[in-house]
Design goal:
about 190 residues, alpha/beta, Rossmann fold, six-stranded mixed β-sheet, globular, binds guanosine-5'-triphosphate, binds magnesium ion
């Protein structure tokens, strides 16, 4: 099966998104390192099954006691076909956190894996002034090497269909490379 991994800085909403996409119940808490192990769930979108794994959050300096759990996360990440890089877009230093995650992925040898940049917590932005539109911001992130960008709120379930559609398209591509002899791919159609 195609393997998809949720990666990102700690406390950005990876587990919340995992629960939403897989309808499972993974501990999501407003504290650092709520997740200490990789958790894997089977998810199906539009007939195509894939494995979705939640991972421990990346951080600039990892606390010592988390190094073991981090190792199992590293394996999940390395073996992934697709990464969902989740970002807390309402965090004042989110661009910095994106850099930390990008550098960590590169160090792991996972820098070339197809990545969807998922800018989460847009509900928190709406409370402030929105000086630039999401479309303009997408352009900004594309210039920084992310060609697949989506703005969501995992908590308020905003734009989840757009994310699922984008994920489905990437999963479909990978699925067809794993099963190239599967001739009738016409029934792989996105369903909400
Ligand atoms: N306002 C808002 N809060 C969110 C959203 N998504 C997640 N949260 C909150 O952010 C906090 C962290 O969420 P988690 O899903 O545990 O984050 P995580 O990335 O899994 O964190 P670690 O496992 O610690 O790395 C929780 O309090 C969530 O309720 C969102 O879209 N909007
Ligand atoms: Mg978590």
């Amino acid at each position: 099966m195609v393997r998809v991994s949720l990666v990102g800085y700690t406390n950005v909403g990876k587990s919340t998104l995992m629960n939403l996409l897989s309808k499972s119940s993974v501990k999501a808490e407003n504290k650092l390192f709520a997740t200490v192990d990789a958790t894997v769930r089977k998810v199906v979108i539009g007939d195509i099954p894939f494995l979705l794994s939640d991972t421990v959050g990346f951080i600039r300096k990892l606390p010592h006691h988390l190094i073991e759990s981090f190792k199992s996360t590293l394996d999940e990440v390395r073996e992934a076909d697709i990464l969902l890089h989740v970002v807390d877009v309402a965090h004042p230093f989110h661009d910095n956190q994106i850099e930390v995650v990008k550098n960590t992925l590169a160090e792991l040898g996972a820098g070339e894996i197809t990545t969807i940049l998922v800018l989460n917590k847009i509900d928190l932005l709406e409370q402030k002034e929105a000086p630039v539109s999401f479309e303009e911001l997408k352009g900004y992130y594309r210039e920084h090497g992310f060609d697949k960008v989506v703005f969501i709120s995992a908590e308020k379930k905003e734009n989840i269909t757009e994310l699922r559609k984008m994920l489905f398209e990437e999963v479909k591509k990978k699925h067809l490379t794993i099963y190239p002899n599967y001739v009738d791919s016409s029934h792989y159609i996105f369903t909400e």
